[in-house]
Design brief:
Blueprint (H helix, E strand, L loop, with lengths): L9 H6 L15 E5 L4 H6 L10 H7 L20 E5 L13 H18 L3 E5 L1 H8 L7 E7 L2 E6 L11 H16 L11 E2 L1
Parallel strand pairs: 1-2, 1-3, 3-5, 4-6
Antiparallel strand pairs: 4-5
């Protein structure tokens, strides 16, 4: 079994606490997907959404973003399809609820800078509660948001973590599919009444 696919040991998971996973980002992206923060598993192996049970990769494929189901260790292949990955907070934790409001707000500042630098068509934030806290939008709901970051439109999606029992895989596929349809049409600005800047 290759080193990339080997499951990390308990000691390796503990050693990954506080590490980050490199962004998969570049110019001209259709969608930049933004997780809340890396799991210890993702930080240990160095790839996004790598923890077993995370539904990101199946949801992405089921929604039609990728032609086949990618494995987490193939995350850099997203760039070939005009997609990318980052995290709101870079620090790896065992659970996202270990992050405080101040850290989420600080992460929003880092994310804004990243988006302004790379200018993706869409920023898709994967986590309703984290988005509300980070961006000061307590009433935000899944779907397109009224805010933009520079020229980038923002879409809020459910967290694909296996720990999120509120959304099953078919729900995630449907939610991600709505974004794919809009992103494929290049209609970032046309469906939003963007009256608030971020």
């Amino acid at each position: 079994m290759s080193e990339e696919r080997r499951r990390p040991t308990r000691a390796e998971l503990e050693a990954a606490r506080g590490r980050h996973v490199p962004d998969v980002v570049g110019a001209g992206l259709r969608v930049l997907f933004c997780g809340i923060n890396p799991s210890l598993y993702s930080a240990a192996v160095g790839h996004h959404f790598a923890r077993p049970g995370n539904r990101f990769w199946p949801a992405l494929h089921g929604a039609g973003f990728t032609g086949r189901l990618l494995a987490p260790f193939e995350d850099r292949r997203l760039l070939d399809t005009g997609l990318g990955c980052t995290n709101l907070v870079e620090r790896a934790t065992a659970r996202a609820d270990e992050l405080g409001p101040a850290e989420l707000r600080e992460g929003a500042g880092r994310l804004r800078a990243l988006v302004l630098r790379h200018r993706p068509g869409w920023l898709a934030v994967l986590g309703v509660g984290a988005y509300r806290a980070a961006f000061g939008r307590p009433g935000a709901a899944a779907g397109p948001q009224p805010d933009r970051i520079g020229s980038t439109a923002v879409w809020l999606l459910p967290n694909p973590s296996g720990l999120n029992a509120h959304h099953q895989l078919p729900d995630l596929v449907a939610a991600y599919g709505r974004l794919r349809e809009v992103a494929a049409g290049g209609g970032g600005a046309c469906i939003l009444d963007c009256t608030h800047g971020t």
